[in-house]
Amino acid sequence: MAQDRLETVAPAIGEEIRPALGKLLGMLLFCIAMMVVGAVIAFFWWFEVELIAGKRISATAGIFGLLAIPLGAFLGLVTCALLASAKKLVIGADCVQLHSKRKVAVHIPYANVTETYATGSDGVVGLVLRDRLDGSTLVPSWTKDRYEVQVMAYRKPLQEIHQLVNQRLTEFRARAR
76 and 8 in one domain? Predict the structure, then answer.
């Protein structure tokens, strides 16, 4: 995406769906807690610390504690990436846009959409593009023939966002006839 292209696309007016920052921060706190609890369990197991009534952490629990540390770190990094890339989703009358810092980061006009799909319970809403190189479409360079919106980062459920996109796409096609 060229920087000059970002400034030529006007923000669309439509249904605005903001990122669910509370949910993402909760996920990050869970990952941090997972790492801390895993570290405490691993420490108690490794140094054979006596717990209540002289019991000790089993080897299985100690190994799970050791595995929880890198798993929590990895999931925490994924959550940080979702937080850093959280953009406002705008479903307009003639396009879908993602806004970042009051600028249009992604612009997909319905004229360039062949179909939509939804996958997973908290998964993605996908837009299949007619022509990725269309001059009126602004998508990241790594986008192939479809653009997927990560719904997990938003305040509305997958089916509601997918239904709204389909409704606006149908209305756009009816007006174009």
Answer: no
**Whole-prediction pTM:** 0.76
Domain count, the chain: 2
For range 100-122, the mean pLDDT: 91
pLDDT digits (tens, 9 = 90+) for 29-85: 999 999 999 999 999 999 999 999 889 999 999 999 999 999 999 999 999 998 888
Same domain? For 59 and 129 the reply is: no
Give yes or no: residues 129 and 153 share one domain: yes
Which pLDDT band, with edges at 50, 70 and 90, does 146 fall under? very high
Whether residues 10 and 30 fall in one domain? no
Dist. CA 6–CA 107, nearest whole Å: 9
Range of the domain at 116: 3-19+87-176
CATH number at residue 124: 2.30.29.30
Q: How far is CA 155 from CA 18, 24, 152, in A?
A: 6, 10, 8
- Could you count the other beta carbons within 10 Å of the beta carbon of residue 156? 16
Q: Where are the alpha helices (DSSP H) in the chain?
A: 3-8, 21-46, 59-84, 158-176
Average pLDDT of the segment spanning 122-148:
91
Quickly count: other Cβ atoms within 10 Å of residue 141's Cβ. Answer: 7
Number of helical (H) and strand (E) elements in the chain, helices listed first: 4, 7
